[in-house]
Amino acid sequence: MQSTTDTWELELLQRMDWRGFELLCAEIFKACGHEVEDTGNGADGGLDLVCSPPDAPPFAVQCKRQKSPVEVKAVREFHGVLAARGIARGAFITTGAFNARSREKFDDQAAVALID
Question: Residue 71 above 60 pLDDT?
């Protein structure tokens, strides 16, 4: 069960524009010690950030600021972008949730972390 504070914070995130959400995600990864490259691809450009942890290979991030569930198609497309760019790992972050099909298809894959 979500607390009132959790609901309030989620509502704030969902009111941000897509760019603000991307920048917030970048700052969180920077605070964790990662170097972060903003790809500048704009809304739905395939991937939004490339993060380089200090002692691990880089990974890509897709940020989706939305209320509706993320469909499996969006996660599949992100997975395809990772493969096309030769990036082994990625994180798909949303202010919504992932639908059941997305969870079934990608929850157990090490290549894409689903974060909602």
Answer: yes
Q: Which token pair is 6?
A: 């959790």
The span from the CA of 103 to the CA of 58, in Å, is 24
- Closest by CA to 46, choosing from 7, 72, 75, is 75
Distance CA 84, CA 92 (A): 16
Q: Please give the single-letter amino acid code of residue 92.
A: F
In the block, tokens 């990608």 appear at: 106
Q: Dump pLDDT digits (tens) for 16-61.
A: 888 899 999 999 999 999 999 998 765 556 789 999 999 999 999 9
Q: In sequence order, what are the residues at sequence separation of 6 or more whose Cβ sits closer than 8 angstroms to the Cβ of residue 89?
A: 57, 59, 60, 82, 110, 111, 112, 113
Strand bridging mode 90-94 / 112-115: parallel
